[in-house]
Write a structure and sequence with these properties.
single chain, four-stranded antiparallel β-sheet
Length: 387
């Protein structure tokens, strides 16, 4: 560990001499569930980790150090982040990339890339704080995954082309996620995206996540390409609106020598909205849905269940702290079958001072275990500090 820091410091000193701009930063976060439990028979009061299904990390710690460098001409640069987490899957990790921009219209980035994500309000921007890793219930409003976003696998090469003002064309190849002896395993998962920024209105984005398709027996695999379309509205003062739609490409394959499977992936739709009534009061909401998917094995057709999810979160700055009331519902509608309804209530507070923020919350949510409806609860707290 000490040797690693020596190497990192040495690289930073070298970079300081070779690059015009060097910026450093760091971040630390700790979280714990001080108590939790459920209404299930013979259940115990727990502490440390949060109740399963909450989306909270429970007993968790995270530390990061990062650096960003750029040369005098602004044509070369790099970013590196390293850190450790102390959760149940505790590990040391790193993330970084280097880039070359020979002209203003073209940039090549090699390493990690997530700057193709367009889920501004629906994703991390919903809580937009360390609450995501400490006290916030994961929610249901992202059901359906109708917005393209980083999923932890995109380390490779990214080519960005900006032929005219407002238009951006990106092609990403996730080499690390699909490594193997066959080039097709990698290039079959190329990501292509076109975004266009409309001045004073918003952004349109179309993304294609390619896949290996449907493979026949004996190497059966379902890996269809997916098309995403998004619109992000910024024209209205104090209002942000994300609208998204995605569809996986249909196909068929032989799952065995005499059985054909025809797959029609569901259509997925969603939206996210954030409105700031003032600097102290606002509300955020997001909705996700998945519907009309089906699968036909031989002559037997099975319909995918309709999935609906909705989250809403009003927030208030009351001076001594900020109060956020995160809540939502989820509905599963199988055909045939009985519907399943779930809900959650997750009020939490934040208090910031300098670069630090304290979080404390309550999670209460419904669940199903052993064929019975139960209620789970947890009281998570956390602290983060950035510099």
């Amino acid at each position: 560990m000490k040797k690693f820091f020596v190497v990192l410091l040495t690289l930073a000193l070298v970079a300081g001499g070779a690059f015009a701009e060097v910026s450093w930063g760091g971040y630390a976060l700790s979280a714990v569930t001080i108590a939790g439990g459920s209404t299930a028979e013979n259940s115990d009061i727990i502490a440390g980790n949060g109740p399963s299904g909450s989306g909270a990390w429970g007993l968790y710690g995270l530390g990061r150090i990062q650096a960003r460098v750029t040369n005098d001409e602004g044509t070369f640069g790099a970013f590196v982040r390293t850190g450790v987490n102390t959760g149940s899957d505790g590990n040391w990790g790193y993330r970084g990339f280097a880039w070359w921009q020979p002209i203003s219209h073209v940039r090549l980035q090699i390493g990690f890339f997530d700057n193709m994500a367009v889920n501004y309000v629906v994703g991390w921007g919903f809580h937009a704080s360390g609450a995501d890793d400490t006290v916030a219930f994961d929610g249901y409003g992202r059901r359906g995954r109708s917005f393209w976003s980083y999923n932890g696998e995109h380390t490779g090469a990214l080519l960005s082309i900006a032929p005219i003002e407002g238009l951006s064309i990106k092609i990403g190849v996730p080499y690390a996620a699909h490594s193997g002896p066959k080039a097709a395993e990698i290039y079959n998962h190329t990501i292509g995206q076109i975004t266009y920024d409309i001045a004073n209105i918003g952004q349109i984005a179309v993304t294609y996540q390619s896949g290996a398709g449907y493979r026949a027996w004996p190497t059966v695999k379902e890996d269809p390409g997916v098309v995403y379309a998004q619109f992000y509205l910024t024209a209205v003062d104090k209002l942000q609106l994300n609208v998204g739609l995605s569809y996986g490409l249909a196909g068929e394959y032989e799952s065995s020598p005499k059985t054909t499977v025809a797959v029609s992936p569901p259509i997925k739709a969603g939206f996210g909205v954030a409105y700031a009534v003032s600097d102290a009061i606002g509300v955020k909401a997001r909705f996700g849905a998945s519907f009309v998917g089906s699968r036909k094995v031989g002559s037997v057709e099975t319909k995918d269940p309709v999935l609906l999810g909705f989250d809403v979160m009003p927030y208030f700055d009351v001076g001594v702290c900020k109060v956020l009331v995160n809540m939502g519902i989820a509905v599963d509608l199988p055909d045939p079958g009985d519907s399943v309804f779930n809900w959650y209530l997750n009020p939490y507070i934040t208090k910031s001072a300098g670069g630090a923020t304290f979080y404390a919350g309550l999670q209460v949510f419904s669940a199903q275990e052993s064929g019975k409806d139960i209620i789970k609860w947890g009281i998570p707290i956390g602290i983060d500090y950035g510099f």
